[in-house]
Fold:
Amino acid sequence: MVVVDRIALGKWGEDVAAGYLERTGYEVLARNWRCREGELDIVAIGDGAICFVEVKARSGVGYGFPAEAVTPVKARRIRRLALRWLAEYRPLGRYDLRFDVVSIVRRQGAAPDVVHLQGAF
Structure:
């Protein structure tokens, strides 16, 4: 089933992204945080910033690179969700806020291509 495969690819991509962020010094605070308005893929702290990370994974680039799927409408929704997350958790300390995209292309028989776009929107 295509839907199941897409869901599995998305879960796999979020696992890869969280591992990548942790290996590069980020602390993952939340994964798949949900409220009635939607979901944030990953919330992490790194480089003095709270980062709201949208993860996009694809099995190829035939339909474009994964990060291209983050439209202006999607970016606005993520910003709204970030405000909800901040209101609920109120992290201690002073942090910048940043909106990142982790783009992952799954390659058959090879390591995934991971691109971390900091401050993507």
In short: The first strand starts at residue 27 and ends at 35. The radius of gyration is 14 Å. DSSP finds two helices and five strands in the chain.
